[in-house]
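New here. Your pick:
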Amino acid sequence: MTLSAVLGYPRVGPKREVKKATEAYWAGKLSADELQKVAKEQRLLRWQTLQQQGVDVIPSGDFTLYDHVLDFNNTFNIIPKRFADAQLSDLDRYFAMGRGHQKDGVDLEAQEMQKWFDSNYHYIKSEVSSSTQFKLNNLKPVDEFVEAKEAGIVTRPVLVGPITALLLGKVGRDEPNPASFDPLSLLDKLVPVYGELLQKLQQAGATEVQIDEPSLVMDSTANLGAQYQATFDALAKAAPGLKITLATYFGRLDKNVEFVAKLPIDTLHVDLDRAADQLDQVVEAVKPTSLKLSLGLVSGRNIWKNDLAASLATAKKVIDVLGQDRVVVATSSSLLHTPVTLANESRLKPEQKDWFSFATEKAAEVATLAKALSGADVSAALDANKQSIQARRDFEKNSDAAVRERLSKVTPDMYDRKSPFAQRIAAQDAVYKLPPFPTTTIGSFPQTKEIRLARSKHTKGELSTEEYEKFLENEIKHAVEFQEEIDIDLLVHGEAERNDMSQYFGEQLQGFVFTENAWVQSYGSRYVRPPIVVSDVSRPTPMTVRWSSYAQSLTKRPMKGMLTGPVTILNWSFPRADISKEVQCKQLALALRDEVVDLEKAGIFAIQVDEPAIREGLPLRQVDWNSYLTWAVDSFKLATAGVEDRTQTHSHFCYSDFNLIFEHIKRLDADVISIEASKSDLKLLDAFNKYSYNNLIGPGLYDIHSPRVPSVQEMKDRLAAFKKALPNQKHLFVNPDCGLKTRGWDETKRALTNLVEVAKWAREEFA
């Protein structure tokens, strides 16, 4: 028979129980034991849910209180010395590694965070050095397997693969030779300890294990065939009775399948949602072997209902070659990138709700496919699915003729500013008269409980629109007065009116629908509700002009208008599946172009169009980069190029290694770009010198993802290092590395006060 499998499941809980409990623990309102009790309850609920949906292979070990890569680091003792030496409990040390710690005389800066491949999920990078001593610091994967087993559910433990873990890691601060140290050189030390964990899983009764090696879909592993062979030979020898499923996802194996098919594993999993074109090559490679093939047919990355008939046709094609017992039907990746369940959605129109499938429903889809392939009668489910797919196809035939026509009439000159940067900056200097090392922030200020409560009351009709807008005006006034008080140079209005940087715009654009409880993890306890693009996108009315204009009326200092860029809105939404991302992105760009021009007309002459997702959306194979970057950069330029020279365009980028794509970054032609640089290696900035970047830069001076407040001296040292790394930049913008919405006002005030003091010091130090 054909089995069904799920590679992973959301960890938040149907009503965000884990998020709430974790944040309550951080706030001192919940004990460690109480937090662990909530976690155990939610783990059991996850396993029971998947069992009830009819899934054969249920994952364990993928649950986390913060991040699964951080869990890997904690299990294998990849704990930087500053954390190991701190007098903290194991749980507090774990959280400190992810979010920093500043309490009771203990001051620890968090580890670096980065996007998980091309998703919007953030993981904590491993910090390793030649002194790293691998050992089993805990038995979390074993404990959770036993926990499920005691509940009567036999699971497949999930582990981050050893090679992927090291490839995604970074050189630790205590490494004496950082320039020459390669984290992968530690593989021979890690593998025996990894094998020890597999032995303990086998002793606990596990019969199979899922080892995630998504790095295999990247160019960087093309020359690692020998390392993969040696690693999996050792793991197979360490636990000979444990069947290994090697899971790849988010892309295609390409030539890597040639050495992967020779590994001593039981099953190979491939992603046929993101890379359906690899199927024939993979089948041909595994055909002469005894390997089972796990087909990732149900998407772990989008929310559209699976076309079961099409998936069945694909699976039958493989079964015809390999036989039924060598085929597993699975999700394409972990379902952590999707919301928990449609059951909690009551406001979607019935016809809209019928288009979608969240994690729980996707598990049912996988089970239905496996049952159909095994000969069970699931005709009712297949018929219902056929009707749903047809209804969606009928809807997709509709289009907004005006939007399509406008996009068809875009001309090449619409992508470029009227004058080159040198002329623009002269016009802008005459308007702004900013000092050297001008201070600014990335846009948002703390989203307090009071703001969230007022928004909720307004949504429920308990607060009138007039009352709500008056409340927002007071919040904006407070933000402006605060910035003037501490002497920020280029102000922002604080974004009190915004729920999320993508959702806020999607709610005001035609072509989107929204959910009530479709939360998806971004990092740690931070969850977002991505908008869903369902049809052609347009802007009925101005979206931000009212609030930016009001903020500007309160001050004589320049005010930045704040927009989310087209690439980021698209990447941080669930996109349509029936038309290309390029078309969707350029529709968004035209809508935002209108907003940019309207802001300028309203007297806002600094406009930030954030594109943190340009780099994260980069295809995993370099051969695919140019096509993506061409339309992505064009979309940003189309959105921003309609203004006069005096208007200064800003943009913001997160976690971006620019070296390989810098010519495209230059082509953006933003007047100012701010970048995440607070925890990254300074080599991140090398590209700006190598490629003679002349536009203005604001490298992030401190990490906002941590509640920790950096000292003045710490920021002085960092700014001096930035200045040394960017000798061709006369003056740098001085700013945090991201928006401040997730922080509290107390830490925000202290951190920004320190930041302003550092900028004033720099004006004298580098005069």
Notes: The CA atoms of residues 416 and 641 lie 5 Å apart. DSSP finds 29 helices and 23 strands in the chain. The mean pLDDT is 94.
